[in-house]
Every structure is written in structure tokens, then in C-alpha cells.
Amino acid sequence: MKQLQANPKPCQVFDLICGSSTGGLIAILLGRFGLSCDDAIAVYQEIGTTMFDGEADNGKIWGHIIHGEQFSSSTLEKKLEELIEKYTGSKDTLFRPPADASDAAIHDQTRTFVTVVSKIGAAGTDAYRIRSYPTPPSEVEPSPYGHKWTIFEGARGTCAAPLYFSPLRILGGNSVYLFQDAGSSGFNNPAKIAVSEAEQVFGANATIALVSLGTGLKSLMGHWKDLKQARTVTDDQINSVVDQIENAEKTHKQNDKKRFSIFKKFERTRKNIQNSPELVRRIATQLLEVATDTETVHSQVHEQFKRRGQGTNYSR
């Protein structure tokens, strides 16, 4: 954005903005609310602190994960409602503005969507897209039929990672529908979905330029040689992490005896890992799966643009 001379907001540059999980939250901030990058970063950090009760910085987050405890969904929901009311005037604002009413959020002509999946759906089933614009004719909307999704429901659903939060509940007649983060079904990187959606919205012959932002494989894989090996977390690797934490503990104790909170953070994390190696192995393996999943999608999308002779139109 800084390379553009006028330094406009993303909603003034991009025709379509989408995201999965907290990337979906970012998409809402930039696309649906029309915030600047700086404002979106500030709001994201504020919500992140709320989502994890301030525990990401004091080592308690591992305790929650180790013991299978989810974070407070009600705390997250309250913060989302406050945010939506601040930028739209009502906590119940629809994700897709009514055609016969003005929209309080100024986002120019940018279209925004976030991804969710049904909690009871089969793994690998295509993610649902909660849109701020009319559904393309060939697309299927999530049940319940005819439900008008609010911004709150879209944000709450896309952020509902099973490891951290309970699923979003939507009532439809006598039925309850549950939705959660699409990343749990292999859609951590929505780049392919974005291309597919753009082709349906703007036409199959439209020239597409895609900017993909997100976590990925390379920064996490380190010295592992291939994906097969990377998907297996060994005892030696867990012990290596514990050793690194112990060394960090010793270093901080030697260098700064006053920073007691840092010592406790290291100690708590190390003990949690040592006491529950099987769960840690499962979580670590899951994180590696996420990393390889996002990188695989990146490679596929990159090749797709290259085959079209538009390799420079894709950037990650």
C-alpha cells in the first residue's frame, strides 16, 4: 500500500478482499469496514488481546491448550459486537447490505467475503462464503436457507477455530446449525477460493491480480528436508524445544534477576510440554499440517497464474 503514491485504503484499491479464520477478521476490517491498514492493525491487536484474555503474553495459553480448555467465546462475542456497532452503528448490521438501504460503513465498491464450514460437514468439503454482495448463480449458500448473515455471525464463525473457541450457533426453524473456522477443513489459505470467486463475480475472462498474505511453510520448516518428514514430530524435537526453553530460562536469570514474570513464563511453558508430550506432539503436528497446507495452495495458485502467462499478477 505504501508503494501507491496517494497511499489509499485497501478498499479503494482492491475489488475483492477475503480471508479465513482471523484472516477473515482482517478481511472484514479492511473490506467490509473500509479501514486503513494502520487502523486495521490496531483493531486486530485489540481483539487478539481480548480473544485470548491477555494470556498469549504470559505463558498461560499453553495451559489452556494442554488441558483442552477453550477460551471464552462470550468475551470474544462482546468485543465483536462493540466493534461492529462502532463502525456500522448497530451490532446487528447485515454482512450483505440491503439493496434498498444505505450502508453505514464506507468501503467504496469493494466486495468482501469470509469462509466458514459446517461443524458436522465432511472434511475437505468446499468452504462456504459469507458475502457482502449477491451470491453468484452457481454457488450454494449455507443453511438455513434464506438466512441473512450479520457481520457478527460472519466474524464469529470464521474465527471459531475448534482448538480455541466453540462453534457459531445459528437457529433455523427447529434446527441448530453449527459453523466454524474453515481452516479446520483445509482452507487456511483461501487463495484458490479467491481466484474461483473472482472468476464468477467478474467473469471467466477477467484479468486477475492477486495479493496473498498469510502464514506459510518456509519460515516454520527450518531444517526439515521434505513434507513427509515434516509431518512427524519426534520426541527428540520436543526435547530440543524443552532444552531451548531451559537455556532461555538460565540466560534470563543470569542477565536480569528482576524480570520474574519472564522466568515464570518460560517455566510454565516448559512444564506443560514435559507433562503432556503426546498432546504437544499432536498440536505441533497439526501446526505443521497447517503450514504445509498453506504452502501447497500457494504452489498451486502460482502455477495457475504461470500457465495463463500472468505470473507477475500473483504475489505472496
Automatic annotation (TrEMBL):
Q: GO CC: one term?
A: membrane
Annotated GO molecular function terms are:
calcium-independent phospholipase A2 activity; transferase activity
Q: Which UniProt keywords apply?
A: Hydrolase, Lipid degradation, Lipid metabolism, Transferase
Q: Where is this motif: GXSXG?
A: 19-23
What is any Pfam family matched here? Patatin
Q: Where is the active site?
A: 21 (nucleophile), 181 (proton acceptor)
Describe the location of the PNPLA domain by residue ranges. Answer: 1-195
Q: Mind listing the GO biological process terms from this record? A: arachidonate metabolic process; glycerolipid metabolic process; lipid catabolic process
Q: Which PANTHER family is this protein grouped with? A: CALCIUM-INDEPENDENT PHOSPHOLIPASE A2-GAMMA
Q: What is the name attached to this protein's record?
A: Acyl transferase/acyl hydrolase/lysophospholipase
Q: Which organism is the protein's source?
A: Rhodocollybia butyracea
